[in-house]
Every structure is written in C-alpha cells, then in structure tokens.
From TrEMBL:
Residues 12-141 form the PLC-beta PH domain. This is Phospholipase C beta 2. It comes from the Eukaryota. Residues 148-194 form the Phosphoinositide phospholipase C beta 1-4-like EF-hand domain. Gene3D superfamilies: 2.30.29.240. InterPro entries: EF-hand-dom_pair (IPR011992), PLC-beta_PH (IPR037862), PLCB1-4-like_EFh (IPR053945). The lineage of its organism: Eukaryota, Metazoa, Chordata, Craniata, Vertebrata.
Amino acid sequence: MSLLNPVLLPPKVKAYLSQGERFIKWDDETTVASPVILRVDPKGYYLYWTYQSKEMEFLDITSIRDTRFGKFAKMPKSQKLRDVFNMDFPDNSFLLKTLTVVSGPDMVDLTFHNFVSYKENVGKVWAEDVLALVKHPLTANASRSTFLDKILVKLKMQLNSEGKIPVKNFFQMFPADRKRVEAALSACHLPKGKPGGAR
C-alpha cells in the first residue's frame, strides 16, 4: 500500500476463529446450558454456533455492540446454572472461561449471548479478536457486492445432508419478498413451492 494509493483491505479472520472452539452456551431465563461449537465464517461476516443437533444460530458481525470476558461478562443468576458451572466452589476458574457477546440494532435493545469455554483464557482471546472484526472500518461500511456475498455465504453454510441449499432458507432470508423469491427461483428453473425442497 503506497501513500498515493491507500487501499483498505478487508478484515482478516484468524484461523482458529474459523476452525471453531467448543463452548457451553447458557441462558439465565431458560436455565439451559448447551454444548456448542462457536465459529466465525472465513470472510468475517457472521459469528455462529452449532448445537449438537446440528442446528445453527447466526449473529451478523455488524450487529455486535460489544464482547466481554472475565469479570465484565454476564454471570449466571440461576442456582441451577451456578451448580452446573460449580461457581460456588472457592477455586473455581469460571471467570477465566467466560465470554459474553452483546448484540442489538442499537445500544438500547441489547441481547446477551453467554458462553463458557472448556479452557481458561479462551473467552478473552475470542472477545478481543471478534471485537477487532466488529471495529474494522469495512465491517460497517461495506459495499453492495459485500452484502450480496454475505447472503451467499450464509446460504452456503446451511446446506442440507445432500449438500444442497434448502428452498425454505431462501424464503427465510427474504421473508418480505416471497413473491419475488418464487419468481427468481422459477426463472432459474428451481423448485419454489416445496418447503423441504432443495436447490
């Protein structure tokens, strides 16, 4: 990069973020703690986790407002979860394993996604590197082609057992434009009416 022609490069996703790490995702309201594999897609568009049932949840990197670890992460209030994580034992290393990802459309309507790693200091490294992706200038100022690429990346991550994109995923991606999605699928000679159909 020269001074005369500066180019802002897209964010680099560290290999360990793409490979994923085992965490336990917990929720105080439901008092459920579920093992997940937490990952960031190779282009840095989504933080996502996969449950043992293979169900996936996605969080757009642009919706993340903060990442927290250690004493700044959320702590379970429910006694059931506190027992699961042995929090009441004096030599507990829970604080060294925590990660909270704060997301929302603004700084008022926030959702807290809470994770606990199996190893110490993993939450800290994840919090720092995910926040670095969030704060990258191109994350918030993406081009039109980047938004199209994000859609494609998300659809390709949700393949069925046959390696095809389920038709229902197109409709979930564009819920307000059902007729336009049907027309586009029809123009491409792809199935459009069967919810279980695949591309």
